[in-house]
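Final paragraph of the annual report: two paired records, presented back to back.
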Amino acid sequence: FVTEGKGINVKVAENGLKINNFKHSTKDESIIVTPTNLTFEQQKGVNIWIAGLLNGVRQQFGFKGQNIVTVNSIKYANTVAENYWDKWAHDLTALEKAEKSIGGVTMSSESIGWGYIPRGETTLDNLKNGIYNSLLSMIFDDAHSNWGHARQLTGMYVNNSNDYFGFSVDKNSIVHFENYEPMRADNSEL
């Protein structure tokens, strides 16, 4: 996926887009959720699931750094979603509020996606399917963004360092994938 010069091997990326498919869950098909208003337990489960997917990708690409999910990383992502404006772009004011909500960060990065998450009530399976397809697009079909989403989500930016991860859905059904390194030690374990 990554060439020697840290560039993206487009042929490998195109193949990755073709060979990866979402695995449906009968259990998740029976759970009704509202993506823009997940309970903490639902959000915790989804965050851990996404981090597990991304950590597997990082490992396959040879990076040792892992996504860590904590109470604060979920709080960070929620603060972004709660303060996000009504435009399709990164909202620096929302990101700054999120950083302040956890005591500051030394590094942060964000990927946002739109069009994959159903509005209103849906099943947890449909929500995860939308998230999965959003991730596939951002990791394997990201040339239009100069592979910036792929670099963040695969851990290429941090290479062998751990960073904190949070996911949220804002009122416009835009998905937010947040990575950061906190200013202070994060003891807010789940």
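The closing record of the year follows.
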Amino acid sequence: MRRNRAGWAAALVLVLYSVLVSYSAAHHEPWRDEAQAWLIVRDLPLPAVFQQMVYEGTPALWHMILLPFAKQGAPYAAEAAVHILLAIAAVALLLRRGPFPLWFKALFVFSYYMSYEYAVIARNYNLTVLLLFALAALCHPRTV
């Protein structure tokens, strides 16, 4: 019974986080460096995208995730949608597999970095958070 209650509480935290991040992203004015990733993958052929990464200073994973959406003619808002989904996945992974108490995970999830910097501002930082949480979950299996 107690585990079921904790599961519902974690689901509530995830839903509240999803609503907060979606609302914030809908009212966020994109910055130049956020739009640049979208413009690179929209306007350049694939070999030129990899050549451009020399000047970007970041790995190409974020650009490769955006590439199919941009090449298919999706609107620029698709970048924010993809970014939000990755942020929600990272938080879901933390809530499900994190070794901390729920109150601590909730405080962390609603902190500035997790709820705005890594979730609303569409840059590649979100991938780092998601991949670090996934690596931690793989390295420290926890019985749930």
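Residues 42 and 71 are 6 Å apart (CA to CA). This concludes the annual technical report; the extension proposal builds directly on these records.
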